[in-house]
Amino acid sequence: EWHAAAEMRRLRDDESAGVLLMLTARTAAGNLAGVMRVRVSFDVSEHQVKARDEMLYVVPEHRGWLGYELPRYAEACAFAMGARDFTLYCLESTDSARLARFAGYRKVATVFQKVAQDACDPSQMPTRHREGVANEPLASH
Questions:
Q1: What are the contacts of 25-31 at 24+ separation with CB within 8 A?
Q2: Could you give the strand order of the β-sheet that contains 32-43, starting from the edge strand earlier in sequence?
């Protein structure tokens, strides 16, 4: 079960430890215009510090310039912390890939996701294979 208070504590602890950047942009009146969360970590297999976004949201009326500048500022902060690369995750349902290409990023992966349903019962998850009981052999022996 997810607990908001515990998650907020973890995020604050990670920020204090220097492995999480929380960036916000506000209007002159103090209203939130955008927020970006970036995770900085050491990649053991590549022996280098990397950064990746965990969240980017810009209020619709502030998209455009801020949608471009907030990630650029985040990457500058991550590079100043020693990161050797910065990864932006772009959802298919948004126009963020266009922003990433404009900012000089290149597509390096295609990510697939399956969402658990029905109390995480694997036999209830959608599949392209024939339906059946979990752990049922697919071929006769």
A1: 25/58, 25/62, 25/66, 25/70, 27/62
A2: 20-26, 32-43, 48-58, 85-87
Amino acid present at 124: Q
Q: What are the tens digits of pLDDT across the range 94-139?
A: 888 888 898 899 999 988 888 776 556 666 656 665 555 555 555 5
**Selection from 58, 54, 111, 102 nearest residue 78 by Cα:** 54
pLDDT of the residue at 69: 93
Q: Is the pLDDT of residue 93 over 70?
A: yes
Identify the residue whose tokens are 């963020």: 96
DSSP string covering 4-41:
HHHHHHHHHHHHHTTSEEEEEEE-TTS-EEEEEEEEEE
The distance of Cα 76 from the centroid of its chain, to the nearest Å, equals 18
Q: Which of 95, 25, 19 is nearest to 52 (CA)?
A: 19
SS3 content of the chain, % helix, strand, coil (to 5): 30, 25, 45
Q: Give the separation between CA 138 and CA 91, rounded to whole angstroms.
A: 34
Q: What is the DSSP letter of 107?
A: -
